[in-house]
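Protein folding task:
====================
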Amino acid sequence: MTFYYDTSAPDFSLRFRLQFENMAPEKDIVFLCIGTDKIIGDSLGPYIGTLLKRRGCCVYGCIGDTVNATNLTAAIVQIFRRHKNPFIIAVDACLGRRDHVGFASLSTEKLKAGAGVNKILLPVGNISVTGIVTEFGANSFKRLMNVSEERIVGMGRAMTDALCAALPTK
């Protein structure tokens, strides 16, 4: 099941947090933030990863140390070597319907990274969180290159705040 939330709505953080709390366990949370910092539209995952890491979360994939199509499998292997029974929250940017651009999705399904640009990668995560950064359609790769940095920063901050508000205190 997938839920969609407008990241610019005044009640975004509350609504997202309440649903997230129903889906995530109390402990052993690992964030797998997927994307590249070389393409602005695909940098949402690493940007969120960087913000989460600054707040003390366990993160794989951040600005300067990304997890992407070339190293996703190696990152998964590393997570399972380092963590006993991890609950993986996969985070990524995605393309979607025009009326969902700027929304965050929260899903009980595994993340299919790269699907918007026709890549077939290992589905990952116990749950997935995506930010719809642009509209799906012809020239998806070009669309990702033309997303504004302001959209990435705004969505990234809102999504990070909502995620952190829902995490159990240590």
User: Anything to note?
Assistant: The mean pLDDT is 89. The beta strands are 2-6, 29-33, 59-60, 87-96, 103-107, 127-135.
